[in-house]
Specification:
The protein is mostly helical. Helix content is 59%, strand content 0%. It has a domain of 93 residues. Helix 2 runs parallel beside helix 5 and helix 4 packs antiparallel against helix 5.
Length: 142
């Protein structure tokens, strides 16, 4: 309780005992610039790992587009409710899969910039798994 009501507990620096000493009269030391080495888990965004993952994401999304388009032209139906809205035309379907690929890269970049490097790669792995499952399902249910 004493710490809550004590005025100096809310101060951000040492208390001034001598009234003739002001913050402007104190000597100031030049600030040293310190180079901070990057952490061990940091990496460049466009490193080999991400390039391989993004190439895999793009390839599987292209395969998903081709299989979905083929199935729709042969009388099949789209099971994904989001893709069903834009998948009525080939251009809409292509835009959907291009946006999906761009979204994966964008979310990965955001996670990279916020230093979530493991999550950055997990986004690509989840998309690769989903696209691979969609391609497999589309090929087996022709």
């Amino acid at each position: 309780m004493c710490a809550l009501f004590c005025g100096q507990s809310f101060g951000q620096g040492p208390a001034m005992v001598n009234a003739s000493v002001t913050p402007d009269s104190l000597p100031s030391a030049p600030m040293a610039q310190v180079a901070v080495p990057p952490a061990a888990n940091e990496h460049r965004f466009w490193d080999r790992g991400n390039l391989a993952l993004f190439a895999t994401v793009a390839a599987l999304n292209a395969a998903d587009f081709a299989v979905t388009r083929s199935n729709l032209q042969n009388g099949g139906q789209e099971l994904n409710p989001i893709t069903r809205v834009v998948g009525r035309s080939t251009a809409g379907l292509a835009a959907n899969f291009a946006a999906e690929t761009a979204s994966v890269i964008g979310v990965s970049y955001f996670l990279h910039k916020t230093s979530h490097h493991k999550l950055e790669r997990i986004v690509s792995f989840v998309n690769v798994g989903g696209s691979a499952a969609a391609v497999t399902y589309g090929l087996t249910h022709r």
